[in-house]
Amino acid sequence: MVGVMDNVGVDIGVMTAGLSAGTEDFLVLADKQPGRLLVAAMVDSPTTPRANVERVRALAQHERFCMVRVSPLVAQYPLNDKLYYP
User: Fold this and answer.
1) Taking a C-beta distance cutoff of 8 angstroms, is the pair 74, 42 a contact?
2) What is the pTM (predicted TM-score) of this model?
3) Cα Rg of the chain, angstroms
4) pLDDT over 80 at 57, yes or no
5) Residue 85: which residues within 8 A CB-CB, separation 6 or more?
């Protein structure tokens, strides 16, 4: 992936995994390419807001974790639903 990024002139890429699974795997990959890859997590279970906040706080301790994404298409809740913003 980094080779493709180099070929098209992309300096930094952001990989997105679900908040509940896959994020650690992406963090391991990002650690192998410091300065080139960052990791985002998408809220994939908005019905557990407290657990999501705890998970985000834990992930935020990693230097390559850069953002949380909200996608209303996953769970079919409106983007401004209180579940996304506890």
Assistant:
1) yes
2) 0.84
3) 14
4) yes
5) none
